[in-house]
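Database export, one record per block. Field names are fixed; values are copied verbatim from the stored entry.
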Amino acid sequence: MVLARLVVSLKTKFKSLKIWKAVDDSYNKIEKSDSMRVEIRSRKARKLIEETLKVADSPKCTKAYSF
């Protein structure tokens, strides 16, 4: 209970000093460039290929799937 009051009082003091606002203003979300989007897509594709190969190579899978 005492710890909760201490945390609340510290938060109010920080807000009065505008430390929280300074942190929020300094953060800017970066825009994704085309190369970043390509990298994300290729990572997802590699992950999907790895998962597919794991299933295909597993000895439990005896059924043949036609796509």
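Remark 1: The CA atoms of residues 45 and 51 lie 10 Å apart.
Remark 2: The mean pLDDT is 79.
End of record.
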